[in-house]
Design brief:
Elements (H helix, E strand, L loop, with lengths): L3 H8 L1 E8 L2 E4 L2 E7 L2 E2 L2 H11 L3 E8 L5 E8 L2 E8 L12 H27 L44 H5 L9 H4 L1
Antiparallel strand pairs: 1-2, 1-5, 2-3, 3-4, 3-7, 5-6, 6-7
């Protein structure tokens, strides 16, 4: 067998990325954590996620003749963490499923349940906190901006001019002529 782990750091491509919820995006595809060509589940996956989850990682990978990812390995610095395996694709409709689809669906279910277990374990490890009232009140000052408090403004009254109801502006508007006139040719 080919020792990909030994040759990829020197011959392959290098991409910086991160691991979010147990998935790594590489070359517009999603990859899952694993080792020895198998996707990790259970305690093995939780151990890998404690090392890699949310971390900035370097992925060293090798492509085939069609620029598809052949093998990929995750590193933090120069330290090897795990192998990245392409996320299995399967038909969701039971009518379209073949035996390989059923196996891929079960594997993805185990993977997702392991991730949820990891999240629950992390959530339970966080200590609960209690916020106590300190009793300190903000220092009161005499400085105020009156525009911010309209209820405190003084209202001044002023006389308002009332216009008559029977004004007719139509005659004045119809007699309006501009100070300059353009010919039809100049307008177009």
């Amino acid at each position: 067998p080919t020792n990909y782990r030994g040759i990829i750091p020197y011959l392959g491509h290098t991409t910086k990325t991160s691991c979010n919820v147990g998935q790594v995006k590489l070359q517009s595809s999603e990859f899952l954590l694993g080792n020895d060509g198998k996707i990790a589940t259970g305690e093995e996956l939780i151990k890998l996620m404690t090392l890699i989850e949310g971390q900035q990682i370097t992925v060293k990978w090798l492509d085939d003749n069609y620029y598809n990812v052949l093998k990929a390995y995750a590193f933090i610095g120069d330290r090897f963490i795990c192998e990245l395996i392409a996320k299995p694709v399967y038909h969701r409709a039971k009518v379209d499923q073949i035996p390989e689809d059923v196996i891929a669906r079960e594997l993805m279910s185990k993977y997702q349940m392991s991730i949820e277990g990891f999240a629950n374990k992390r959530r339970k490890s966080i200590d609960k906190i209690t916020v106590l009232e300190t009793g300190f009140a903000p220092k009161k000052t005499s400085f105020k901006i009156s525009e911010l408090h309209p209820s405190e403004k003084k209202i001044e009254s002023a006389a308002v001019a009332v216009m008559p109801d029977n004004l007719d502006f139509e005659d004045e508007l119809n007699d309006f002529e501009p100070a300059y006139k353009q010919s039809l040719i100049d307008r177009f």
